[in-house]
UniProtKB/TrEMBL annotation:
Domain annotation ABC transmembrane type-2: ranges: 40-274
InterPro entries associated with the record: ABC2_TM, ABC2_TM_bact-type, ABC_2_transport, Nod_factor_ABC_transporter
Family: Belongs to the ABC-2 integral membrane protein family.
Subcellular location: Cell membrane; Membrane
Entry annotated with the keyword ATP-binding: no
Keyword Ligase found: no
Entry GO terms, CC: ATP-binding cassette (ABC) transporter complex
UniProt entry keywords in alphabetical sequence: Antibiotic resistance, Cell membrane, Membrane, Transmembrane, Transmembrane helix, Transport
Pfam families named among the record's database cross-references: ABC2_membrane
A GO term, aspect molecular function: ABC-type transporter activity
Name assigned to this protein: Transport permease protein
Residue intervals passing through the bilayer: 40-63, 75-96, 117-144, 156-180, 192-213, 243-268
Length: 276
């Protein structure tokens, strides 16, 4: 005599656009709730950015030559806005790396939820914090004398370019968080953040650098965003004769799209192979 045992049906995979959206909202809420309960990381990030502004505005500003004798603080702030987006990479990387290291990501993968929602939820939460960061930085800029002299539409366009860069960099952070662990993740991100941030036109004219180094600075994606936003904000900035400087507004869109095209698929593939 044989007995037939009923096997439990496999858990739902969470497929479908509706499930992806629902699960993404849930996981975005998880990140926001975590920040509310443990705000120290966010406060430290905002404080670091504010201190950077105050240091450059009040300590180093007197030694900086501004193009055409313009306001140094108006020159400074577009570079600082973009720099804060660069420094946001570490927060994304560490959060992803911590979830993987503690087994949280494996638990999510074993649950009946859309796999894409785990990464989307992280990206949306970090974008919300990027918006908050940008608003805070703009308020700090206004407090020290920065002004957006362009139209309302141009100002919103500049903000859009800054946030587009941040969205692309989020996927760099997600990929690095999936690849690296612990202190390795922190060191790896800092190795990326500081050269990418300072080897640009944010604070120093590329024309003052050695030729090869100035070319690298001009082709830095951050430089295109800074140049384009300075124009849109109506703030002073460096000139230049190279193609990338002349087409900074175009490259401020192209560079983030290229970064997304590279790192979003890499992050998705790396996430899919975590259990291999």
């Amino acid at each position: 005599m044989t007995a037939t045992l009923d096997r439990p049906a496999p858990a739902a995979t969470g497929g479908g656009l509706g499930n992806v959206l629902t699960d993404s909202v849930t996981l975005t809420g998880r990140s926001l709730a975590h920040w509310v309960r443990n705000p120290a990381t966010l406060i430290a990030s905002l404080a670091f950015n504010i201190v950077m502004v105050l240091m450059f505005a009040f300590l180093f500003g007197g030694a900086m030559a501004v193009p055409d004798g313009g306001s140094y603080r108006e020159f400074l702030m577009p570079g600082m806005f973009a720099m804060t987006m660069i420094f946001g990479i570490s927060m994304t990387t560490i959060a992803i790396s911590t979830d993987v290291e503690r087994g949280v990501t494996d638990r999510f993968r074993s649950m009946p939820m859309a796999p894409a929602a785990i990464l989307i939820g992280r990206a949306v939460a970090d974008m919300l914090f990027a918006v908050v960061t940008l608003v805070v930085m703009m308020l700090v800029g206004l407090a020290i004398g920065w002004r957006a002299n362009g139209s309302v539409g141009a100002t919103l366009g500049a903000m859009g370019l800054i946030l587009l860069l941040r969205f692309a960099l989020i996927w760099v952070g997600i990929f690095l968080g999936l690849v690296m662990r612990g202190q390795e993740a922190v060191a790896g991100v800092q190795t990326l953040e500081f050269p990418l941030g300072f080897l640009s036109n944010a604070f120093v004219a590329p024309s003052t650098m050695p030729g090869w180094l100035g070319a690298i600075a001009e082709w830095n994606p951050l430089s295109s965003t800074v140049t384009a936003t300075r124009v849109l904000f109506g703030n002073p900035g460096w000139g230049g004769d190279s193609w990338v400087v002349a087409n900074a507004s175009l490259m401020a869109v192209v560079w983030p799209l290229v970064i997304l095209a590279v790192f979003l698929p890499l992050a998705v593939r790396r996430y899919a192979s975590l259990s291999d």
